[in-house]
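Appendix B, Record 12. Input sequence as logged:
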Amino acid sequence: MFQQSIRALQSKNCTARLSFQGPRSVVSLAGSGNRTASTTMSTICILEPTHWGRFQGGAEIQSHFLANHIADKTNHTVVYLSRFIPDDVSTYRYKILQYQGPRLLRHLRWGQTGDSISIYQQLRRIDPDVILQMQAGAYVGAGAFYAKRNNKPFVWYIASDRDLEADPPVGTESPFKPLDQRFFQYGIDNADYIIAQTKFQERMLLANLDRRAVAVVPNFHPVPDVVEKPESPLIVSWIANLKPLKRPQLFAKLAEAFKDRSDVFFMMAGRSDESVESRRAIETLGSLPNGKYLGELTLDEVNSLLEKSHVLINTSEYEGFPNTFVQAWLRSVPTLSINVDPDDIMSTHSIGKMSGSLERLVDDLRELTTNSELRISSGNRARNFSVESFSLDNAAKVVRILEAAIHQGKIQTLR
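Logged structural output:
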């Protein structure tokens, strides 16, 4: 799949080539051994508004894994530039730097664009050979602006389907929000390479924004050892940051439908936005004899929960490619969702199901909790498929794109 995407970009309508003899080294997309093929030392900057150590969202986790991979498996220097960083940056295997908004406006909600000056100044100090950004917003524009002014390649890695809508919701609620949206669009228009997580995103990018993805590279996670699950009770987990688009209240309603099942326990984990809906979902779940809200968990705690879980539930309105799906599949946990099945993976590989409604979700969960043979076989298929498809080999593919971007330089022919 990855190689097919690369070959497609080498057609007569696109002069960008991602496998070539560079002036200093050979960039190979096939990979080689434990370290990447390039022996040239370059500086790769990952630009994100928040570091994983401050907020464990999906894009932050992927950025952290990628930075670790670059630090451990390549000869390159990686710098993570972010506004919100951990208190102790010395514990990480890569360099972390901070940018800040304008001092005169720091007490106001100046929007994301207000950070652009500080981002530009820090990028000048870093002097990166390539810049990668994984989220939507004016920060995409800030990275692309610096790259264009300084003749450096800029790579945008799509994180959510919603970022590709014709009018995506971008920026904070402030007088500067329209400017944030325009700067985000500037970033998309001027990105030298765009990476999609799914084929669906690849199609949306072309249809809505008239850009072509250089490749489709799914999420990546370390592959854990196989851990035997307890037979009872059955644990049904919901893991996300509690906010409107995740719809935690639907998980609470799902749990209510199973309140008489003492053999099934419902666990909700994630940071709450303290909205009325989130508080009500937490209260409803806590009132059940077989429900519990665990609060925000660390990545290790989430993985530990999934090792004990038997089903993962997703109730989001939309997603990009949920990291929790990959984490669950790697731990032999089938997934059920209402709206989300990235690239129809769950249905195609029989590792879960997109129910389409809360009522159908109740029925599908009842089937999985009463049919142990179906549940176990689905979990085993999920494990085998995810090990093959979502390992850190995907991080190596991203690195090879970054290396190709460094050697190829800036391009504007991917439209």
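The two ends are 20 Å apart (CA to CA).
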